[in-house]
Each structure stands twice: as structure tokens, then as C-alpha cells.
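Task: sequence design from structure.
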């Protein structure tokens, strides 16, 4: 129904304005928080991109926030056991339009969607100083396979390109 749509659009734009207002930009151009959307796009050129996090690679300073939007339908955000920093509690976001996490522990985090991970719905979250990141980090205790791994290798290549060591 059109009127319901416009009402929704108005609410969405107000919410976007609020989000912008609460996301200060640092002098070096980085933001103090990131927003990740979860997308279903059956027309994508590659199977690897049909279900995806957008963006799928984000670097944050320690203590900054990340907001995961659209954990609905079949989309979820879960950390991959063995591919997050030691001692960090499992990340699990489901059945919510939006959830914000504060990233207090530096390191590399591999996140996936329970349902679409096998299509390559994987993302990489890098927290803290680039000096502390390794590819792969010593704390990583497992490997992925199939499209999981294909996407992860792309993301690690992005990490290396952006932060050459
Ligand atoms: Cu999904």
C-alpha cells in the first residue's frame, strides 16, 4: 500500500539521520562505527555474491561499534569458531532489524550467515591496529572450505592490499 510505504520511507530517513548524527567522523576520515547490510541478490554475477554482507570488509579501531542490519528472513550473523580472537564470546545476531556491537578486543573476526555461508556469505572484521593483524592470525585454529574459503581468501587479499605489511 503506497501510504504505508511512504510512512516507512519517512521513518527510515529519520533513522538514517539519527545514525549519521551519532557516528562522528575522525580527522583521518575513518568513522567511529560501521553499518553492515545483509543482501539477497539472486541476479548477482557470481554465486559468491548472491548472498552477501555489504560491505564485507571493515576495519575498526578498538572500542568502535558495528551495526548489523537486516538479520531477518534467513539472514544471521555468526562468528566462525576458531576464526575470531582468543577469549572472545561467540557473536550471534538473528531475528532483528538492527543490532549494534561494541568491538573491544582487537584482532581479525570472520563472520558468516548460518544459512548462506555455503554460498560465500562471509565477511571480515578487522579491529585495532594493523600491526596486530596477521594473515592468518596465530589465534586462528581452523580453515574454511568451499565457497566459505573462496570468499575468505578474497577478503584476506583485500586486507593485505589495504594494509600492506
Ligand atoms: Cu544470509
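Answer:
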Amino acid at each position: 500500500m503506497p501510504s504505508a510505504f511512504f510512512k516507512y520511507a519517512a521513518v527510515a530517513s529519520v533513522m538514517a539521520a539519527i545514525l549519521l548524527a551519532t557516528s562522528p567522523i575522525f580527522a583521518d576520515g575513518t568513522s567511529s562505527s560501521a553499518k553492515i547490510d545483509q543482501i539477497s541478490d539472486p541476479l548477482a554475477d557470481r554465486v559468491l555474491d548472491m548472498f552477501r554482507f555489504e560491505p564485507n570488509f571493515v576495519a575498526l579501531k578498538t572500542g568502535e561499534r558495528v551495526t548489523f542490519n537486516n538479520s531477518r528472513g534467513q539472514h544471521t550473523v555468526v562468528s566462525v569458531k576458531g576464526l575470531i580472537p582468543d577469549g572472545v564470546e561467540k557473536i550471534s545476531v538473528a531475528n532483528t532489524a538492527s543490532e549494534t556491537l561494541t568491538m573491544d578486543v582487537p584482532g581479525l573476526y570472520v563472520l558468516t550467515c548460518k544459512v548462506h555461508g555455503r554460498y560465500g556469505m562471509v565477511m571480515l572484521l578487522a579491529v585495532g591496529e594493523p600491526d596486530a593483524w596477521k594473515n592468518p592470525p596465530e589465534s586462528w585454529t581452523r580453515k574454511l572450505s568451499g565457497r566459505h574459503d573462496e570468499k575468505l581468501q578474497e577478503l584476506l587479499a583485500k586486507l593485505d592490499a589495504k594494509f600492506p605489511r
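The beta strands are 33-40, 51-54, 57-60, 65-79, 92-102, 107-112, 122-127.
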